[in-house]
Amino acid sequence: MERFSRRLIFIGVGGQGVVLVTRIISQSVVEEGYRVVIGETHGQAIRGGTTLTHMLYGEEEIYSPLIMKGTADAIIGFEPMETVRALPYLRRGGVVVYNRHPVHPVTVKIGEEEYPTPGELLSKINSIDGRVYGLDATKIAEELGSRRVANILLLGVMTGAFDLGIRLDTIRESIIRNVPPGTVEVNLKAFNKGIEYAKREQTSRKHKNFL
């Protein structure tokens, strides 16, 4: 019998809360009794560069902190162009949850790269062999009271769309421990909103397939 394991990729631009979400999930994983290994690449994160995190966890010993291309179970993309960068890591049938709200990285700002059109980004992301959940998490977070909780909203979507093998209460407790004082309520609201979004999307897709 195959032992439980998960391979997750988190990617975004510095300042979007990628590290916070990684910490919340990693602590939740430990609470559930799994072994976890994390590999992080921050690049020019402080100046708005790419922040990429590999997370591997499960029941067995893990020897490498890096995920091979084509083997990640899921990707959480905090920014659309950065999400496209991570797509080669995804396995067939994997899940992508991403924020459609663009944040121009430092490479675009200094003219080293051109930012793709929304249509180009959408086409690349939707071409994967897997399930895609794309939403303007920044806008929804603003409607909840703070755009800074967009990262927790995306975590909620991933939790609702994909079996992380972690109990919801464990993740909620980790959120409470890790977010700044005074922001617990809005962060939990964002997390729950994300779960609701994923479940609503799943129901809608099942209905369309039935028709």
Strand content: 15-25%
Q: What's the total helix number?
A: 8
DSSP strand tally: 6
Structural class by sheet pairing and helices: alpha/beta
Q: Please give the CATH architecture.
A: 3-Layer(aba) Sandwich
Any idea what the shape is?
A: globular
Mean pLDDT: 92
For the record, the count of structural domains works out to 1
Gyration radius, to the nearest Å? 16 Å
Might you state the CATH topology name? Pyruvate-ferredoxin Oxidoreductase, domain 3
What percent of the residues sit in helical stretches (DSSP H or I)? 40-55%
CATH superfamily: Pyruvate-ferredoxin oxidoreductase, PFOR, domain III
Topology:
Layout: E1 5-13, H1 18-31, E2 35-41, E3 50-58, E4 72-77, H2 80-86, E5 90-99, H3 106-109, H4 118-126, E6 130-135, H5 137-144, H6 150-161, H7 168-178, H8 184-210
Parallel strand pairs: 1-4, 4-5, 5-6
Antiparallel strand pairs: 1-3, 2-3
Helix pairs in contact: 1-7, 2-4, 5-6, 6-8
Commentary on this structure:
The protein is α/β, with parallel strands linked by helices and 211 residues long. It has one domain: 3-Layer(aba) Sandwich (Pyruvate-ferredoxin Oxidoreductase, domain 3). Helix content is 44%, strand content 22%. The protein is built from 8 helices and 6 strands; from the N terminus they run βαβββαβααβαααα. Strands 2-3-1-4-5-6 form a 6-stranded mixed sheet, with helices on both faces. A hairpin with an 8-residue loop joins strand 2 and strand 3. Helix 1 (18-31) crosses helix 7 (168-178), helix 5 (137-144) crosses helix 6 (150-161) and helix 6 (150-161) crosses helix 8 (184-210). The radius of gyration is 16 Å and the shape is globular. The protein starts with a strand and ends with a helix.
